[in-house]
Amino acid sequence: MSERVAVRKTYKLFVGGKFPRSESGRSYLVQDSNVSLASRKDARDAVVAARAAVKGWAGATAYNRGQILYRVAEMLEGRREQFVALGVPGDEVDAATDRWVWYAGWSDKLPQVYGGANPVAGPYFNLSAPEPTGVVAVVAPEAPALLGLVSVIAPAIVTGNTVVVAASPTAPLAAVTLAEVLATSDLPGGVVNILTGRLSETVPTLAAHMDVNAIDLTGVTDAELAADMEVKAAENLKRVLRPVSAGHDWSADPGLGRMTALLETKTVWHPKGV
Amino acid sequence: MTATATSARSDLSELGRSETALRTFLHGLPGVDQVGAEQRAAQLGTRSIKTTAKAEAIDLAIRMVDLTTLEGADTPGKVRALAAKALRPDPADPSCPHVGAVCVYPSMVPYVAEVLRGSDVHLASVATSFPSGQAPLEIKLADTRAAVEAGADEIDMVINRGAFLAGRYTEVYDEIVATKEACGGADAGRQGRPRAHLKVILETGELATYDNVRRASWLAMLAGADFIKTSTGKVPVAATLPVTLVMLEAVRDFRAATGRQVGVKPAGGIKTTKDAIKYLVMVNETVGPDWLHPDWFRFGASSLLNDLLMQRTKLTTGVYAGPDYFTLD
Fold first, then answer.
1. What is the tens place of the pLDDT at every residue in B177-232?
2. B326 in a domain, yes or no?
3. Which residue in chain B is spatially nearest to A208 when comparing CA positions?
4. Which pairs from A77-86 meet CB under 8 Å and 24+ separation?
5. B319·A209 Cβ contact <8 A
6. I need a surface site. Which of A103, A212, A222, A259 has the fewest CB within 10 A?
7. Model pTM?
8. Which residues of B are tagged catalytic?
9. Which residues does the UniProt record annotate as the domain Aldehyde dehydrogenase (chain A) (predicted)?
10. What is the CATH number of the domain that holds A43?
11. A73 domain-assigned
């Protein structure tokens, strides 16, 4: 019997529910694994996939979105060892799993906390309801690799947005492995799209893209790049979340800010007594 | 070439007089190599067109668009808006060319004509009981005359697929000839008479084989078509690259045989700039640059125009455009 040769994994992009290689055919090495090096066109394709998924995801009931996010937590729990093998501490995997559950619970509660009836001087019911802003570009923080990533994706999608995530260039393995979790969690294709590679290639494309509604610059460490991205984002009035400081404590209570920053408010006037 | 072409033309014009001669001629056309045609089409689709060439291709494609709306729900307001868009597809950029034509149902022609008056944008109308073509000849001809009188200068007719597939070629031939007459062809010289171009829709999705597409192309050209068009857009299989390749070969061979140039219009299912550029590459490689002009090649499309405009904006601004910034129809 000859000795068995181990099968090595190629870490590919996650776009539209599929795992394509970069259209450029490029890859780079991280922890002895080949990881796709996404190009501008991959970013464009990811936005197309994210836009196509908005209608179905935003139109799904909050209850259904909550169930799916909870399902992500279930799947993540089962793959704990895989993340540990990549060097993610076990505690962090647990915290990330709990974060999915925490955000899953908010799906049908946020509209009550953040929306509601407004008193108006006239015979009307006046109701405000939060609605997703649409396609959100997210720059994931460099560390913690998994908890940071989950903490930026979950609040964006729980309200019905779809995301294009530029994963941390130095820690993409956890991001692609999380994509494998998402792909087996009943999450519709295109709701989360993950690009690996250099931020300098994908992020400017996303920041300038006219069909992206918001950009979360959390993981941008270069202040000049961040300022430049804000300028690009201003062209179509994207909502912008500024970078967080290096010492940010990701294990602390995240609060509602990340969810509410990516919402629009719809207000309806309904005549009384008709 | 002119001398031989003239003599050849007189030969071919006799064909329509007898069912036997027409059948012998059409069935004598060489068969289409299906695998070869599909492979050739796929191969031409892999060409990479970038930067300045892409910019030219996009502008040319915009000029070739027959901006189409053929729905039961069309209203005068909707077709007026469409005509306004045809004149100025991108209001933000004056350098953007206008489209080739607007294509509507006959009852909508007068509203479009008001908007297009005085412009270079043509006004096409479908006729002859579009899309099925299953009506008595008299009704089809009345349909055509009404559209021409209302101001259409291009008529998109459908062939009688029932008769074609049953092998009654003269019936199809005579219908095309009669429709051509109804377009004002016979009275072209008389002053004040409207004269419309005739586009003949083969509805290739219902013809089943490439051999039939080749025969129908020749039949339409022999009967006097100014353009041959793939599809109505109302059946599941619309324009495809291989079908268009077969039709382009037919117009090329027809010009070689008769000296008369006929245009080609793929319609239905062409939605992206990438698709449109594949067609342009195929035109250039199959029939040459003579056909790379809106007078000889058109795209029947509606959503294609927005994608062309978005790609055009990307090239001029360097930023990917979004559909929020272009009109819905």
1. 999 999 984 454 454 555 799 999 999 999 999 999 999 999 999 999 999 999 99
2. no
3. B319
4. A79/A177, A79/A180, A79/A181, A82/A177, A83/A146, A83/A174, A83/A177, A86/A31, A86/A173, A86/A174, A86/A177
5. yes
6. A222
7. 0.89
8. 156, 229, 265
9. 34-240
10. 3.40.605.10
11. yes
